[in-house]
Amino acid sequence: MHRRDMLIELGVEEIPAGYIQPAMDKFCSCIKESLSQAGLGYESLEQYSTPRRFGLGILQLESEQRDEVIERVGPAVSIAYDKEGKLTKAAQGFVRGAGANEQDIYKVESAKGEKIAVRLEKKGKTTMELLPDIIKRAIESITFPKTMRWGSSRMWFARPVRWLVSLYGEDVIEMALNGINSGRLSFGNRYSRLVNPVEISASAEYLGTLKSVNVIARREERQALIQKQISEIEKEYKLEVIADEKLLETVTNLVEYPTATIGSFAEKYLELPEKIIISTLSQNQKCFALREAEGKLTNKFIFTNNADRDSESIIRHGNEKVISARLADAEFYYLEDTQTGLEDYVEKLAEVLFQKDLGNLREKTERIVGICEYICEEGGITGERKSDILRTALLCKADLVTQMLGEKEFTKLQGYIGMKYALKSGENEQVAQGIYEHYQPRGQNDELPETETGTIVAIADKLDTVCGIMGAGLLPTGSNDPFALRRAANGIVSILASKGLALNLERLIEEAFRLLSAKLGSEGNNQEIVQEFFEQRINWLLKQSGIGYDVIESVMHLDKGNVSDLLIRAREVENFRQRDDFRELVLGFKRVSNIINEQGIFGDVRPELLTDEAERQLFEHYQVLAVELAELAGNYSIMMEKLVNFSSYINRFFDDVLVNVDEIEIRSNRYNLLKKIREEFLGVADLALIVVEEK
Question: Are strands 3-12 and 53-62 parallel, antiparallel or unpaired?
């Protein structure tokens, strides 16, 4: 057996940048799995990809499978032979199914007695025999968000497949894919020639041969080259690129041989809001924006093309022309939009449908204002703070009907456009920043709103969406969540927890449904389902915070309304469970809970009926504990410390006192004492639900 390098290259028309890496990961994983199943060892696997090719290099791949000796065990000897010593039908079927002969049979001992067996030698196949099926299966495993067929092809792919290179060392792996025969012919960069064929003599020559026709097949190498060229431009012009990892990933997948070049646009466009310029450069034209050292945006940008320096001026001119045209459009929208104040756009929201059962965006805005009024009342927010919040709520959706967003050129800037237009209209900083922040968090890793206005309006907007959409019967199922309700609900609980807002979420949901009642009616609005939905989201938040499932259960069964308080309690219980004395606390509380679980009627504790020293001490320290916990309300770290210290009195009580005595009054009085203790503990958590090991 020997080893050689293997190469697969699937040539295609230009694939969208976002499709490439997911497809490569699937391609690679399928090849790995198939080689493992075939028992073919190799040293390493390398990915190669450009907009026009998917490639894999499998280094030092074994040339053949190993031969195997397989033992097949059949029926028991007593079943395999009849009285005359001849094979029974059961034994004959076993031998035939194993592909053996009668003379191959031997006997083996097993746990269930002696059985017949045969030994088969399975000859390993050569790698060249196995690879065509492995390659074809891997290519067919690749999926894309959108696919197409071309010509008379039956194959579905993101773009038409044009060639297939498959080599094992210097030898071609003979196979056909969708009418295309494999070979050693690949194609180079199109900027020098539209059809630029090149022959790959051997797997090991692949990368070098492609470089000779201006293709860098290693994605990481292209990205490093782009970064190096950008760095050189930064030094030459004393400017700094605005970091954009996502753009860098995209640009890397747009070119086969990158050349970074600087371009510029008219300085007058720098009067536009900064993100409009950056969005035009990065989102529309895949260019990097540049700042001066002190942070001011410049009229220069860097673009990456797929050609050499000889074509630089032509490509620069084309990029500058398109960017100037887009910025001219943005300037027109901006000047037209800002001729009137942002508030003037609020009434136009009535022309935009939010959802057929829930009305238009003007009606949604009114509900957002209503929820904000409720939050202000609950939180004791008055005066200028309240005015800013309600003003933010009124204006938060107004930018959606401006030309800047209405023309679909800059839809990702909703909120930001509203903020800039608000400032232009004379709104104060709190209102403007709140308009921008009320969409946050837009995803799991996004920032939370910082201002009070942004925080409260974000909660109100998201809550109206979740309650309204689910109230209309459009419930998220499995991975199907077209209205991103999980993301919105996660945003609400994350904001409540991180900001420490003492809002009761359950009552907040009830208020949202009250405001929606004109649209949904009083019946069949799924309010209970929404409450359960938010419980799941709180559970998600606690898990994200590293809280164990049993600790979550111990706090969730109590008060689910105050999310911030829930998270603090859960974290403290989780912290204490690492301590040795926590186990004794939990076991003691479990005994308290278990002994009174079957009792239905309780009363006050009568001190005169406490006959044993241990129960008198327990009662005295309970009274002290109750006062201390009331004074410490919300300071769960110290409260937990008090409970841990108190557990010694519980343990002594159970060691020295028999609860279920015959005297009814004494027995009931002891139940009442344990019930009072349990109530104090439940102010923190139901520790009976915590899982600990008993001695």
Answer: antiparallel
| Short-list 415, 402, 502, 513, CA closest to 458 | 415
**Tokens 């940048």, residue?**
17
The two three-digit tokens of residue 413, written as one number? 């800037």
* CATH code reported for the domain at 577-689: 1.10.730.10
Spatial separation of the C-alpha atoms in residues 675 and 669, rounded to whole Å: 10
How far is 400 from 210, CA to CA, in rounded Å? 49
Is 564 within 8 Å of 502 (Cβ atoms)? yes
Q: Output the pLDDT for position 275.
A: 94
Q: Which of 419, 437, 438 is nearest to 429 (CA)?
A: 419
Phi first, then psi: give them for residue 113, nearest 5 degrees. Answer: 105, -170
Phi first, then psi, for residue 303 (nearest 5°) are -120, 155
Give the Å distances, CA to CA, from 460 to 191, 381, 438, 439, 466.
Answer: 53, 15, 9, 11, 10
Gap between the Cα atoms of 636 and 673, Å rounded: 23
Exposed (0-12), middle (13-18) or buried (19+): which is 339, by Cβ within 10 Å? exposed
Instruction: Say whether 668 sits in a helix, a strand or coil.
Output: helix
- Calculate ∠ Cα 604-610-611, nearest 5°: 160
Domain ranges of the chain: 3-64+126-211, 68-122, 219-337, 343-544, 577-689
The answer to whether 365 touches 343, Cβ cutoff 8 Å, is no
- The region, left, alpha or beta by phi > 0 then psi within -120 to 50, assigned to residue 99 is left
Q: How far apart are CA 345 and CA 422, in angstroms?
A: 11
Question: For the chain, what is the radius of gyration of the CA atoms?
Answer: 36
Q: Is the dihedral of CA 154, 158, 160, 165 positive or negative?
A: negative
* Contact between residue 431 and residue 395 where contact means Cβ atoms under 8 Å apart: yes
State residue 660's pLDDT score.
Answer: 87
- Number of alpha helices (DSSP H) and beta strands (DSSP E) in the chain: 24, 18
Short-list 293, 243, 285, CA closest to 261:
285
SS3 132: helix
What average pLDDT does the segment 426-445 reach?
A: 94
DSSP for 250-264 reads: HHHTT-SS-EEEEEE
Q: What distance in Å separates the CA atoms of residue 334 and residue 277, rounded to the nearest whole number?
A: 12
Closest Cα to residue 38, out of 125, 98, 101? 125
Q: What confidence tens digit (pLDDT) does each residue in 140-183 have?
A: 999 999 999 998 888 999 999 999 999 999 999 999 999 899 99
Task: Report H helices in 353-444.
Answer: 361-379, 383-395, 403-406, 416-424, 429-437
For residue 492, give Cα distances in angstroms to 383, 409, 419, 456, 540.
25, 29, 21, 10, 12
Report the alpha-carbon distance of residue 131 to residue 6 in Å, rounded.
10
Dist CA 273 CA 415 (whole Å): 13
What CA–CA distance (Å, rounded) separates 136 from 175?
Answer: 9
CATH 3.30.450 at 343-544, yes or no: no
DSSP letter for 98, please: T
* Distance, CA of 126 to CA of 403 (rounded, Å): 65
Length of the chain measured in residues: 695
* Dist CA 694 CA 320 (whole Å): 74
The beta-carbon contacts of 678-681 under 8 Å, at least 24 apart in sequence, are: 678/589, 678/592, 678/593, 678/596, 680/622, 680/625, 680/626, 680/629, 681/589, 681/592, 681/643
Q: What's the pLDDT tens digit per position in 304-360?
A: 998 777 777 888 999 999 999 999 999 999 999 999 999 999 999 999 999 999 999
